[in-house]
Design brief:
Elements lengths: L6 E4 L2 E4 L10 H5 L2 E3 L2 E5 L5 E4 L1 H14 L7 H14 L11 E10 L12 E10 L12 E4 L16 H5 L2 H9 L4 E5 L7 E4 L3 E6 L2 E5 L9 H12 L3 E5 L5 H4 L2 E6 L3 E5 L9 H14 L10 E4 L3
Parallel strand pairs: 8-9, 12-13
Antiparallel strand pairs: 1-2, 1-7, 3-6, 4-5, 4-6, 5-16, 6-7, 9-10, 11-12, 11-14, 14-15
Helix pairs in contact: 2-3, 6-8
The structure holds 4'-deoxy-4'-aminopyridoxal-5'-phosphate (PMP).
């Protein structure tokens, strides 16, 4: 894999990035027993590094590990492993304002298991890669195809955790949308095929008359850390924020729609007759990205600064 650099963290130590050995009968290869996380490190103007709420990723992977029958590093150990990996790779973090270092922790059933059961051994590793904008459009509006037939998650399934199978489930819909020149897919609920869920790798928000709404977390969407942060930012700026069922028809009347995620940060979606970046999307984006990049004071206490000696 070419995009990854430097050192990766694996089973408690830093190693030179490279392929790993895996049994053909490992739990992850046969039964999809795998989870991942995604974080970003930004370089500040003074050269130091900022992480954003890494303990939230640590807690989310714990919940996922429970659902996937795997043990998981405790919160503080997870955060320390992320810090060590970022510091070991700090030369790959782009200069301030020029991108970020994407951090990908993975937890998988690496032990051999033939009959269906949790693997007897697990591997926790972290690799990194410098990144720019996730969608080539940056903050410009993205174009989403509403998908009612292919679902990324069903009630009682694994949609609420970041397990690898959720991403396999969206590949076909995403490829079909891209072939039609859409940027990505907006999924609807699998029962009534009517309520917004999320995009392949981000959460969705709808703005109407300065009220910001997002689908409620009920097990079929990923509880995004950016989603949670944007709700707090918006409330602190005086917006009314609702978590509720949002019918797809509401998009026809909405003032703005935007997506949130670690990779995309905030990406406005195109709406009929409104292809600009709406003022609410712009405001919450600027507040969050400035905080993540260390351009404004972190009054929320969300950033973790790593100082280079
Ligand atoms: N939904 C899905 C399906 C995702 O893959 C992601 C990216 N992790 C998100 C939402 C956004 O989550 P976060 O803000 O924690 O990155």
């Amino acid at each position: 894999m070419k995009c990854c650099r430097g050192e990766h963290f694996s089973d408690g130590e830093l190693r030179r990035f490279g392929n790993i050995e895996l049994s053909p009968s490992s739990g992850v290869l046969n039964y999809g027993q795998g989870l991942y996380e995604g974080l970003k490190a930004y370089r500040k103007k003074d050269g130091n590094i900022l992480l954003f709420r890494p303990e939230e990723n640590a807690m989310r992977i714990q919940r996922g590990a429970d659902r996937m029958c795997m043990p998981c590093p405790p919160v503080q150990q997870f955060v320390e492993a992320v810090k060590a990996t970022v510091l070991a790779n700090h030369r790959w973090i782009p200069p301030a304002g020029k991108g970020s270092l994407y951090i990908r922790p993975l937890l998988m059933g690496s032990g051999a298991v033939l009959g269906l059961a949790p693997a007897p051994e697990y591997t926790f590793l972290i690799y990194v890669s410098p990144v720019g904008n996730y969608f080539k459009e940056g903050l410009a509006p993205i174009n989403l195809l509403v998908e009612a037939e292919i679902h990324r998650a069903t009630p009682g399934g694994t949609g609420g955790i970041k397990c690898i199978g959720n991403y396999a489930a969206v590949l076909k819909a995403q490829a079909a949308a891209k072939a039609k020149d859409f940027t990505d897919v907006l999924y609807l609920d699998s029962i009534r095929k009517k309520y917004l869920e999320e995009v392949s790798s981000c959460n969705v928000f709808v703005v109407k008359d300065n009220v910001i709404s997002t689908p409620a977390v009920e097990g079929t969407i990923l509880p995004g850390i950016t989603r949670k942060s944007i709700m707090d930012v918006a409330r602190s700026q005086g917006f009314k924020v609702e978590e509720r069922l949002i019918a797809v028809d509401e998009l026809l009347e909405a003032d703005e729609v935007f997506c949130t995620g670690t990779a995309v940060v905030v990406s406005p979606g195109e709406l009929y007759g409104n292809n600009g970046v709406g003022p609410v999307s712009q405001q919450v984006y600027s507040t969050l990205i400035n905080l993540q990049m260390g351009l404004t004071e972190d009054t929320m206490g969300w950033t973790l600064e790593l100082k280079l000696k």
